[in-house]
Amino acid sequence: MIPLRPSLLRRPREALVCSQCLVRSRPVRHDAIRGFLSSSKRRTGTANSQSPSVLHETYFSANRLYDRSNSKGGLLSSLASSNAKSNSTASSPPTDPTATGLDSSATPSAAIAPQATPEELPHRRRKRLKEQNNASSKADGCLPLDASAQLSNFSSALPTTSLRRKLAAYLALTKPRLSFLIVLTTTSAYGMYPISSLLTLDPAMTPLPTLSTSTLTFIYLTAGTFLSCCSANTLNMMFEPKYDALMSRTRNRPLVRGLVSRRGALLFAIGTAVTGLSLLYIGTNPTTTALSAANIFLYAFVYTPLKRIHVINTWVGAVVGGIPPLMGWVAAAGQIATIGHDTWRDMLFSENSIGGWLLGGILFAWQFPHFNALSHLIRDEYKAAGYRMLCWVNPARNGRVALRYAVLMFPLSFGLWWVNVVGHGFLVGSTVANGWLVREAYRFWQHQGANGTARGLFWASIWQLPILLVGGLVTKKGLWDGVWRNLFGHPEDEEDDFLYYEDEEEEGETAKPAETTTTRPTSRTSVLSTV
Hints:
Strand content: under 5%
CATH topology of the largest domain: Tetracycline Repressor, domain 2
CATH architecture of the largest domain: Orthogonal Bundle
Largest sheet: none
Distance between the termini: 120 Å
CATH class of the largest domain: Mainly Alpha
Number of strands: 0
Radius of gyration: 38 Å
CATH superfamily of the largest domain: UbiA prenyltransferase
Number of domains: 4
């Protein structure tokens, strides 16, 4: 056992405090602390019957009493005096404070400490604050910060001369998450185009493009679509900064906070539009480029000002969301289009364009349950900013429209299977995803967005769309035929091979006499007969 230092024995008031409080309040050597913890009897100098009074519940609190104590001794004096007072009242009459080794200045603290309410324990305080944050996040009108707001906060924290500050601010103008979603819908439609099946049906069509050609087209489509989205989103922010400042969802945008000037935003919008449209024109076809230019015009110059005029703006915005899948479909169709069949009418209104219109219809219908739920959560802010939205103009119709277009997802998904774009597995996956969306939309309509139904529909729409798009890519028609044959050993159709070789033999037979007649013409009659 380590002997106690005499200096500790001469300080009985410090024996009434736990070791953590002692270490925090006064610098003590480590060997003194070990001796202080070695023996409770020698440390307190009291009987076992009085030991429970030493282990007071305030010793294990947050020790906020130390900060509020105005006495000379601080926490040590207040705790020591309160313990001395409780012991003296239980066993003996009151004595002079100087007789117990306590300062007279600790008397006010001793009178206040027993009457103070017990402090909240740290872990309970953390739990309470966490529950309050969760409850506030579930309340209406509270949405997580979008990518633009996060990038704006990151940019504002950097030095004004930093290049990263400018890059983050300009990237915030593009609405990265929305742009990524649009690129996802475009490339998904591009990947679902059934090139192989069309080549099988029409042997006169051009051969399937090589891997390098299709990959290059995919890169042009992705980059051009993203830059076009950047231009449209930048113009949208540039036209309404004073209205964005009135809403918590948009008040952190870079133009509102002054991170980017209006002149800089305009030059950025023009530059991204010219670059994006040029990439689409060079890498895809003029029809895809025209669709992208029309989308920029609709979003920036029709949808944006219409938000303050009429609720029809939601339908215009849904058209803007339905064009990108059609762009991806037309870009894929342009790779196998023959001369004379590559006009915009053939690309958009032929029999082979039905799949692209169905994918565009899915995105058009998806906009309503998604946006109607989102707008309901911040309907008061939309009203204060002067935006004409169904969420506050006609709340009952807002729920009906969301439910109506959620139900429309079923026939549109079924149509993709009907036109042989996807396989049977897509019916199962799409039915589950669409059923989930319809269920949340029905609850949203039934409760008029209350009881958390608006938030439930919002998150259901966030997950339902990627399930449909990825499911369509995975279950693309003819994608797993080769894998199925390799696994189960089904031979390929011999009839197709026989017809293929027969056509080659016929072509060889007709080509051989023609070759002999041109190289060795015997007479006019033989040449005419061969021809």
